[in-house]
Amino acid sequence: MRVEAEGLATGLTHYDPLSLGIAPGGCVIVDFTAFDGDPAGVAAHAEAWLNRLPCPSIALTTERVRLKGFDLSLPTPGEVERLEAVVAANPVASTVLVQTLRLIEQLPMQAGLVVESLAFATLQQGEEFRCWLAALPEQAQTPLSKPADSPPLILERRDDMLDILLNRPEGRNEINVEMRDALFEAFSLAAMDDDVKRVHVRGAGDSFSIGGALSDFGRVGSGAAGHFIRSERLPARMLADHGHKYHFHLHGACVGAGVEIAAFGGHVTATPTAFLRLPEVSMGLIPGAGGCVSVTKRIGRQGAAWLMMTGQRISARTALKWGLIDAIEN
């Protein structure tokens, strides 16, 4: 559904958003390119109405500005068409994502993690995720990390500093159940020990972390069971209140949960060749390791929505420009 900004300014908000007859897989796109009024004022006036939309809302503007209230603000028709295609391909995941981000923007981090987990659990039972899972090649479902004699994490304590090394380089530090539980325990230790003032987190091998293990996807019996597990064992729960202690050092591939967990850190650095990506919407899901909270906290709701919906791979330099990391280090 496309409307001119004048329509949003003069009367569209008088109609209930649910009565607009928006086609499944559609968006509401408001064109501000020929608008002579105050775009920010119109967006602010329509914010409550926009937040009730049962689909993503996109503002087409003449420059790269973020109009409050919209799920996305985009500067070119080409970018709008790209996002329309994303929504058409995964309408449920796209809608659940923007609804989740709308709520999280207004909530404390711990409450936001609950909302994210419930939304993720909903999508785990959805048709989009089932179709993605069914099309996953058998090879991709084979665990990258093999059972090993060495622990998934190596911890070293030095005075008031704790060093944590993700120690599954052969699997590019994928976050499987073993790694998740080890991270939860390590982050719990740092949270409970007031003498630990600084925590440095690194990854062994050529990547910081490629995120959740594909071999674990779909293994949980139900969305409800998955939510229960995340309520008890999600590493992000230990970071949300103690992230200021953490310095995450990123390199190589930083994908999915690898980005989500690191974004909680009080200080995040990356090597010049590192790249970051959040591909979950293309799987029929949303980030479920805390990223809807942590990434939004760092780059705002609209930046988070764009990164998550497009699944775009971004460089360390772009991540620095956006505020997703704090510095580039060699």
Description:
InterPro entries: ClpP/crotonase-like_dom_sf, Enoyl-CoA_hydra/iso, Enoyl-CoA_Hydratase/Isomerase. One of its GO terms (molecular function) is catalytic activity. With 330 residues, this protein is α/β, with parallel strands linked by helices. It folds into 2 domains: 2-89; 113-328, 2-enoyl-CoA Hydratase, Chain A, domain 1 (Alpha-Beta Complex), CATH 3.90.226.10. 41% of the residues lie in helices and 15% in strands. The chain contains 13 helices and 13 strands. The protein has helices at 5-10, 39-45, 47-51, 77-89, 91-104, 109-124, 127-134, 177-192, 223-233, 235-239, 257-262, 291-310, 316-322, and strands at residues 2-4, 28-31, 57-60, 72-74, 153-158, 161-166, 198-203, 246-250, 253-255, 267-270, 275-277, 314-315, 327-328. The chain has a 6-stranded mixed sheet, with helices on one face. β1 (2-4), α1 (5-10) and β2 form a beta-alpha-beta unit. The mean pLDDT is 94.
Q: What's the topology here?
A:
Elements: E1 2-4, H1 5-10, E2 28-31, H2 39-45, H3 47-51, E3 57-60, E4 72-74, H4 77-89, H5 91-104, H6 109-124, H7 127-134, E5 153-158, E6 161-166, H8 177-192, E7 198-203, H9 223-233, H10 235-239, E8 246-250, E9 253-255, H11 257-262, E10 267-270, E11 275-277, H12 291-310, E12 314-315, H13 316-322, E13 327-328
Parallel strand pairs: 1-2, 2-3, 3-4, 6-7, 7-8, 8-10, 9-11, 10-13
Antiparallel strand pairs: 5-6, 11-12
Helix pairs in contact: 4-5, 5-6, 5-12, 6-9
